[in-house]
């Protein structure tokens, strides 16, 4: 069986798993952050957990790039830079901005490592090896999907980073508790950082215009939409003065 056929089978399997995860997370919140609870085994300091689980997405994408014969073409280089603009920051900068002494289960970190490894294989292997020859020529950079996708991606990127900054500034050095975030899109929703990531990877799906790109967008929604709902319910249960007009993820809707 060719690698392309194996690739397609794995992609379909993980798309199906995304549906299962989406349903499951409406009933069981992943036990890290504000939803941390006992009974999930050994734990690791959150900043190291974030680094270890996000690093494969950054490093493996670079590895696939250098192993590819398409490294001399411009479009794959642009894809690499776009991908790294998110994942290099998420793996090697963001973890060291976290405050407090929070921990996460090693099991959750392990699941994330597996997903990021598989997802990076889907994205990078398609772009650098399995996509039809000539699909990502330099002309691709002038096509509407690429231009529109980049605009969507960096709109989401801005929303994510702006929201993360607001959340990080809620705690002063030495503080560990939670506060109500305010300003920016927090005026309307509880989790604009999650909305930003969904927009980002939806933009990625458009700019690469591939089934692997769509897979990542679907998985992002499957993971973050239920967690946004859990966050929203947590805020409302812990803060009696929590703004009643806020939604969880989409202003005025959800």
Rounded mean pLDDT score = 93
Number of domains: 1
Helix/strand/pairing category: mainly alpha
Termini separation (Å)? 44 Å
Q: Which strand-content bin applies to the residues?
A: under 5%
Please state the CA-atom Rg, rounded to the nearest Å: 19 Å
Q: Using the alpha-carbon principal axes, give the shape.
A: globular
Task: Give the number of helices.
Answer: 7
Q: Segments where pLDDT lies below 50 for 5+ residues?
A: none
Beta strand count: 2
Helical content stands at: 55-70%
Description:
- The chain is mainly alpha-helical and 254 residues long.
- It has one domain.
- Helix content is 62%, strand content 2%.
- The chain contains seven helices and two strands.
- The chain has a two-stranded antiparallel sheet with strand order 1-2.
- It is globular.
- It starts with a helix and ends in a 16-residue tail after the last helix.
- The model has no long low-confidence stretch (mean pLDDT 93).
């Amino acid at each position: 069986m060719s690698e392309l056929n194996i690739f397609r089978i794995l992609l379909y399997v993980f798309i199906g798993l995304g549906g299962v995860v989406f349903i499951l997370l409406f009933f069981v919140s992943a036990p890290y952050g504000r939803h941390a609870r006992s009974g999930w085994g050994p734990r690791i300091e959150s900043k190291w957990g974030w680094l270890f689980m996000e690093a494969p997405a950054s490093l493996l994408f670079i590895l696939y790039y250098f192993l590819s014969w398409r490294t001399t073409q411009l479009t794959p280089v642009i894809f690499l830079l776009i991908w790294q603009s998110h994942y290099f920051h998420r793996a090697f900068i963001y973890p060291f901005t976290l405050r407090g002494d929070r921990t996460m289960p090693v099991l959750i970190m392990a699941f994330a490592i597996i997903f990021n490894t598989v997802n990076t294989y889907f994205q990078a292997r398609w772009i650098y090896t399995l996509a039809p020859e000539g699909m990502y020529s330099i002309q691709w950079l002038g096509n509407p999907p690429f231009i529109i996708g980049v605009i969507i991606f960096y709109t989401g990127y801005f929303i994510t980073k702006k929201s993360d900054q607001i959340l990080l500034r809620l705690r002063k050095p030495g503080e560990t508790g939670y506060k109500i975030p305010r300003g920016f899109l927090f005026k309307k929703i509880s989790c604009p950082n999650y909305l930003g990531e969904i927009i980002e990877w939806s933009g990625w799906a458009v700019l690469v215009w591939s089934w692997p790109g769509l897979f990542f967008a679907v998985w992002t929604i499957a993971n973050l939409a239920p967690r946004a709902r859990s966050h929203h319910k947590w805020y409302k249960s812990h803060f009696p003065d929590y703004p009643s007009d806020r939604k969880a993820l989409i202003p005025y809707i959800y």
